[in-house]
């Protein structure tokens, strides 16, 4: 295959695992643009269309808003893949390797609406041929799931829903109450789902937000399988390493992307932030048993 455009480097991440921070810090350090599978997050041209990264791939990925020094040879490209829906049951979040991989390259472009009024989103899916490498972002599961809860709270903060915010506060009781509400919502669906084995359902017992922990474990298993199936050279980035060794972490990532470090390391990384205190010790032990049961040997 003849290369006729920038090479896509997937930034594969389960939502709220440090996706935004990783993108911002690399943008600021390199002063180069990035890309996204999701056109609603991308740059629009003068006609109101999202701008594809490559001329030969109008279905995406799409350029981000930041321009900087332009488009590098290897372009960090956001994707959350599949099996990561928010507040959903197993009928929606259980994936096969094939459906997960398709979701990794499925997004949507923005274009003008009918008669030039407003805009509309058109579903897109690009080819695997343009994907050359991958960055697999991994965050501590306990912190990752609490961060998803915080994202939910932000939506209610925008609506100024004080009743919901008081009920589901950011402390231990608030988080546990939120998880109980979510867990109870999908009990029947979990019992009826033929892809959840009895052993997995038994492991759900006593785990707050157990569905999210299943999604987390399944997601990373399928991410490893997908990058291996596509034979993508992969850089694994542990989010917590920004805390323990910031310079080493960003330098290794820049080297993988073949980018030089030219700008300031912004935004600052908030060190020492963890949410493990929102779980009991017994719950943490049960979570790890569930993850160990669901993940593949390659992803463990």
Secondary structure: number of strands:
8
Query: What is the general shape?
Result: globular
Number of helices: 12
How big is the Rg?
20 Å
Largest sheet strand order = 3-2-4-1-7-8
What ranges have pLDDT less than 50 throughout 5 or more consecutive residues? Answer: none
Largest sheet: 6 strands, mixed
The SS-based structural class is alpha/beta
Helix content: 40-55%
In percent terms, what proportion of residues is strand? 5-15%
Average pLDDT, rounded to a whole number, is: 94
Query: What is the H/E order?
Result: EHEEEHHEEEHHHHHHEHHH
Distance between the termini: 34 Å
Task: Name the features.
300 residues, alpha/beta, two-stranded antiparallel sheet, 15% strand
Describe what this molecule looks like in 3D.
This protein has 300 residues and is an alpha/beta fold. The protein contains twelve helices and eight strands. Helix 3 packs across helix 9 and helix 9 packs parallel to helix 12. The mean pLDDT is 94.
In terms of topology, how is this protein built?
Elements: E1 7-13, H1 19-30, E2 35-36, E3 62-63, E4 74-79, H2 90-93, H3 97-104, E5 106-112, E6 119-125, E7 131-138, H4 141-158, H5 162-167, H6 172-185, H7 187-192, H8 198-204, H9 210-229, E8 234-238, H10 241-244, H11 246-257, H12 281-294
Parallel strand pairs: 1-4, 1-7, 2-4, 7-8
Antiparallel strand pairs: 2-3, 5-6
Helix pairs in contact: 3-9, 9-12
A few lines on this structure:
With 300 residues, the protein is an alpha/beta fold. The chain has helices spanning 19-30, 90-93, 97-104, 141-158, 162-167, 172-185, 187-192, 198-204, 210-229, 241-244, 246-257, 281-294; strands at 7-13, 35-36, 62-63, 74-79, 106-112, 119-125, 131-138, 234-238.
């Amino acid at each position: 295959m003849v290369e006729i455009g920038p090479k896509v480097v997937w930034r594969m991440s389960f939502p709220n695992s440090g996706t935004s921070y990783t993108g911002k810090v690399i943008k600021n350090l390199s002063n180069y643009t990035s890309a996204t599978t999701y056109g609603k997050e991308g740059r629009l041209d003068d006609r109101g269309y999202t701008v594809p990264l490559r001329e030969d791939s109008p279905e995406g990925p799409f350029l981000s808003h930041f321009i900087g020094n332009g488009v590098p040879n290897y372009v960090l490209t956001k994707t959350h893949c599949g099996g990561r829906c928010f507040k959903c049951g197993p009928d929606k979040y259980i994936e096969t390797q094939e459906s997960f991989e398709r979701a990794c390259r499925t997004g949507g472009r923005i274009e003008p609406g009918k008669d030039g009024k407003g805009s509309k989103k058109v579903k897109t899916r690009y080819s695997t041929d343009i994907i050359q490498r991958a960055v697999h972002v991994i965050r501590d599961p306990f912190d990752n799931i609490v961060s998803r809860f915080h994202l939910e709270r932000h939506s209610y903060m925008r609506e100024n829903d004080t009743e919901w915010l008081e009920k589901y506060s950011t402390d231990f009781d608030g988080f546990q109450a939120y998880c109980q509400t979510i867990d109870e919502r999908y009990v029947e669906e979990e019992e009826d789902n033929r892809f959840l084995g009895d052993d997995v359902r038994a492991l759900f017992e006593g785990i707050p937000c157990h569905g999210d922990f299943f999604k987390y474990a399944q997601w990373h298993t399928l991410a490893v399988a997908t990058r291996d199936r596509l034979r993508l050279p992969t850089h694994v980035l542990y989010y917590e390493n920004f805390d323990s060794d910031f310079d080493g972490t960003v330098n290794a990532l820049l080297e993988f992307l073949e980018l030089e470090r030219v700008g300031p390391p912004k935004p600052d990384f908030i060190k020492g932030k963890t949410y493990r205190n929102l779980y009991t010790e017994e719950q943490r032990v049960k979570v790890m048993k569930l993850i160990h049961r669901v993940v593949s040997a390659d992803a463990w």
